[in-house]
Amino acid sequence: MNIVVVVRQVPDLIEPLEIAESGTSLDFDEVSFLVNETDDHALEQALLLKEAGGGTVTVVALDCGEVDDTLYTAAAKGADKIVKIPVEDELRPPAPPAAAALFAEAVKGLQADLVLVGSSAHDELEGMLAPLLALKLQLPYVGVIRGVRAGDGSVTAFKEFPGAVMAKMNVKLPAVLGILAADQPPRYVPVSRIKAATKSTEFEEVEVAAAAAPGVTVQRMYHPAAGERAEMLEGSEEEVAAKIAEILVEKGILK
Amino acid sequence: MSAQDILVVAETNQDAPADITFELLGGARELAGATGGQVVAVLLGSDGVKHAAALSAADRILVIDDPQLAAFSPDAYVAVLEHVISAEGPRAVLVGCTTIGYDVAPTLAAKLNAPVVNGCKAVAVEGDALKVTCGLCGGKILADVAVAGSPAILMTLPGSFRPSEAAGQAQVETKASPVPLQPGAVTFEQMIMPEAGDVDIMQQDVLVAIGRGIQQEGNIEMAQELAETLGGELAASRPIVDQGWLPTTRQVGKSGMIVKPKLYLALGISGAPEHQEGMSGSDVIIAVNTDPSAPIFDVAHYGVEMDLLDLVEPLVEAINAKKG
Ligand SMILES: Cc1cc2nc3c(=O)[nH]c(=O)nc-3n(C[C@H](O)[C@H](O)[C@H](O)COP(=O)(O)OP(=O)(O)OC[C@H]3O[C@@H](n4cnc5c(N)ncnc54)[C@H](O)[C@@H]3O)c2cc1C
Ligand SMILES: Nc1ncnc2c1ncn2[C@@H]1O[C@H](COP(=O)(O)O)[C@@H](O)[C@H]1O
Predict the structure, then answer these.
(1) Is the backbone peptide bond immediately before B273 cis, with ω within 30 degrees of 0?
(2) How far apart are CA B167 and CA B173, in angstroms?
(3) Is the C-beta atom of B121 inside 6 A of ligand 1?
(4) Which of A3, A233, B56, B89 is the most buried (most CB within 10 A)?
């Protein structure tokens, strides 16, 4: 099975998120990026499927948001081929409709049996990449998937519903799946293997035309008023612990 | 039908209308007040008519009943909704940020050539456009966006609107699918329920919930000790379950359980909207997090900016001291 994995970079939420001077976007000069978590799970799911049933794994990414380290890591984990799509602005990831158009052009030529992409990303405002990519590729789609098993000309995908309930879905190939979690957590790869991959991996580049902008205008971007409700408990560990115990007694939780 | 109407994509969950549906009806009612239109609920299913009465906060309820809609199918849902929305021509369509909404809303918007926004928390009419406030980056950023053109497809975060269950004089129209439906490339086979046997975290008075901040599987033991000291149980955010450290029955949030304990003690949980969805109704929420800007502090009653690994032991001691 030829599996294509679509990977994107997103702002790291642990680092401070500054707003740009324009007031309408993040300050991408200051943002630090990492791989979108669900895309990382999509890659893991692809590698698991390849290990179970053979085939190839091709990783496709836009050349923005400091993507190279992510791609070398993917190579070190076992991706067979890596395709990078140049974009106009290397700092600022394009919105989902534009990203879908760019990825679709690149994926079309790859004869994929299965396209795996993270089900969602925390910076998706104008729609979502995964279903839009499927639409552009004119392939069937189902997302919010936790776990995939290969079958004959089809795959079984487990779609999450509330209450830890799963729907077992049969998906005829070729298809696009939006992965939320792989059957196993993304594998760890030692830094030495990533370093080796940095030397041995070549990126293939595909030029594709940029796409039209969506019909949504950001007027203002800002931080929510943080800690509006929480009363912050200060002091040493012991002092805070005593305060919490006091609150629990007061609320009748600790008797 | 009017170009000022607000359409709600209703959902059921385990054979009852889903909570998000009542929230969308509440939001739609507010918005329809501003546009001067009606609220129209659309429910897809094979026997949806039995849920119609519960949706009477709407002015009109369209029930599309078809055997092919008995279980969720992305293709069938998109095909039917595309047809219904085109025929109704509403000003806006409210869809939940749910496992179903995620699969259908972006595709619907693209097919209808309509604008779509994800993470909607509030919406108002501003001239010809809608002004939508969206949450993104795990709840750390808000964006006010102008959405011009209709129908505006608004993918709405759970918890954004006050639910409306008000029983009005809704008119119910039940129809077969307006488009022919055949099994497509994606077909539903069966529902798999969570494994029985574990404790039911929805029945607990005290939950000690751990998130990625716990860092290592070996650290779970100290959280477990804290839970036992409090007479409660362990719960978790999604990454802990994805790691296989705790079973899915312990997951709190969108894909997990909705809990409302007397005490929810969140250790090393950022408080992403998908997590808040499952715990914001708890009586007392205490959050411990090293990041003062973590969104969990927006929903917590008490917050501690501290390394959880330093706090848990003294906390066990302090509680034992109180218990005397
Ligand atoms: C469709 C969908 C469904 C989802 N369903 C769910 C769901 O049901 N439940 C759920 O929880 N999530 C769900 N998510 C995932 C959700 O978006 C978040 O990714 C997840 O909740 C993050 O978990 P976390 O807070 O443990 O991890 P992170 O977001 O990584 O946060 C870890 C936190 O720990 C803090 N921390 C780190 N070290 C320490 C320390 N030593 N002491 C104290 N604090 C520390 C950090 O500051 C950070 O705030 C879903 C996502 C999607 C897209
Ligand atoms: N990723 C998964 N998530 C939930 N259930 C699954 C998953 N994979 C398999 N199952 C179910 O677990 C049982 C055993 O699966 P298997 O070992 O794949 O035959 C069957 O009922 C499957 O449908």
Answers:
(1) no
(2) 17
(3) no
(4) A3
ipTM rounded to 2 decimals = 0.92
Amino acid at A226: A
Domains of chain B with CATH codes: 6-176 (3.40.50.620), 201-323 (3.40.50.1220)
Is the full-model pTM beyond 0.80? yes
Q: Where are the domains of chain A?
A: 2-205
pLDDT tens track for A175-209 = 999 999 999 999 999 999 999 999 999 999 888 87
Q: Determine whether the shortest distance from the Cβ of A28 to ligand 2 is under 6 A.
A: no
Nearest to B27, CA basis, from B118, B144, B163: B163
- Considering only CA atoms, which of B164, B9, B160, B18 is closest in space to residue B92? B9
CA A157 to centroid of ligand 2, rounded, Å: 10
B199: contact with A, CB 8 A cutoff: no
Cβ B319–A162 below 8 Å, yes or no? Answer: no
Phi then psi for residue B25, to 5 deg, are: -65, -40
pLDDT in tens, B83-136: 999 999 999 999 999 999 999 999 999 999 999 999 999 999 998 899 999 999
Report B:49-88 residues touching A (Cβ under 8 A). Answer: 71-72, 74-75
| Residue B187 contacts A where some CB pair is shorter than 8 Å | yes
Let me know how long chain B is.
Answer: 324
Nearest-CA distance from B169 to chain A in Å? 31
Confirm or reject: Cβ of B250 under 6 Å from ligand 1: no
